[in-house]
Amino acid sequence: MRNEESGFSGESGAARIQERLQKRHQARIEDAERRKEAKESHSVAEEKSEYFSSAFNRERACIEELLSSCSGAERAVVTEKLEEATTKTLQLQKFLNDSMQFLTQYELRQAQAALQKLQTSLSETKEEALPRKKFAFRTRTKATDKASAQDAHPLPRDEGTPAETGRTQVDGAAPAEQCGFSNMTSEFLTKTAEEIQKRDVLLTHLTNCKVHLFGSPSTLHLKHIDSCEILCGPVSSSVFVDNCRNSVLAFPCQQLRTHNTTDTQVYLHVTSRAIIEDCHGVSFAPFTWSYPTLEEDFTVSGLDQARNNWTQVDDFNWLAAGTPSPNWTVIPEADRKANWDS
After folding, report:
1. What single DSSP character describes residue 209?
2. Strand partners, 200
3. Using CA of residue 100, residue 105, residue 111, residue 115, what is the dihedral sign?
4. What span, in angstroms and rounded, lies between the C-alpha atoms of 32 and 38?
5. Is 207 exposed, middle or buried (0-12, 13-18, 19+ CB in 10 A)?
6. Helix locations, the chain, DSSP H
7. Which helix (H) or strand (E) holds 169?
8. Where would one find the signal peptide in this protein (predicted)?
9. Which stretches of 254-292 are assigned E, i.e. beta strand?
């Protein structure tokens, strides 16, 4: 009887040992597979990063060469080269936007800085090679003295219209590329689509104002904004926000860059990503403002209405992977603004 029990026990023990060995072997195989997949994934990411860096630098060098070749060239040649450089720069911006998902924060910063430098160089070359001529007649009247006084103590004004400086603008003079409002308090301000279409819009030093911008501007710059509500139609490229506090903003755009901003709500439609830096108390919700020609303005802007990455916010002051930034939040649905007419 004891021999039978001993034999049974021995067989059971051997089976358990064999089972443990099989599990251990299987675990080793699975662990090896995971390491292999991780290595392959890392290799793919490195390959994508290397490809991006190579392609980005090659295209940037091509644009820089185009800009350099403008020096001393005939006006028609310069115009053609600048148009090509502008197209390539926009394509490079799109390439960067599409590559953000596999770039590190450092690589993203470097590329954005290089692109910003390139855009600045393009603007400077355009201004130097193709300066806009300004024609004006100076009138010797009492208005001249009045204008001098106004220049010494400038009044708040609409940046889209020429200031009254005692000069008469000649028909055919090139209009300013930038429009907007500055140095205003407690005003309701509006721009029509005809006024801002494909232009750069600058809003600066506004306090307790409501601003409605209809149409599709090229870029939107907001600087030194305090306790304002600013609503804007689709911006075809970037929105830049700097030194904004206690405000409500709403706009669609390709990219959002926000600096030094506090306690501000942003109702956003963004087709690439939103970036914040040196900010706190910033909250986001999807863009909900509407007006009769919004669909037409989306078409003009070229933005994809079906693509909205409003929750994909990169905080350049918060690089802790896997931990949400404390500097921005999502506005709860119950707290989102629903009536923009009030």
Report:
1. -
2. 178, 219
3. positive
4. 10
5. middle
6. 2-68, 75-99, 105-129, 142-152, 193-196, 294-301
7. strand 167-169
8. none
9. 255-259, 262-270, 274-277, 280-286
Residue 312 is encoded by which pair of tokens?
Answer: 């994909």
pLDDT digits (tens, 9 = 90+) for 33-86: 777 666 655 555 567 778 888 888 988 899 988 888 888 888 888 888 888 888
Domains in the chain: how many in total? 2
The pLDDT mean for the chain works out to 80
Looking at 129, 144, 170, which one is the last position of a domain? Answer: 129
Which parts of 72-210 fold into alpha helices (H)? 75-99, 105-129, 142-152, 193-196
Residue 27 and residue 309: Cα distance in Å, rounded? 39
Q: Give the separation between CA 330 and CA 285, rounded to whole angstroms.
A: 6
Asked whether residue 33 is assigned to any structural domain, the reply reads yes
254 is a domain residue: yes
pLDDT at 158: 59
Angle between helices 75-99 and 2-68 (to 10 degrees): 170
Residue in the block written with tokens 């029990």: 5
**CA 86, CA 119: separation in Å to the nearest integer?**
9
- Residue 143 contacts by C-beta under 8 Å, 6 or more apart in sequence? 164, 166
Tokens of 19: 């089972």
d(CA 89, CA 117): 11
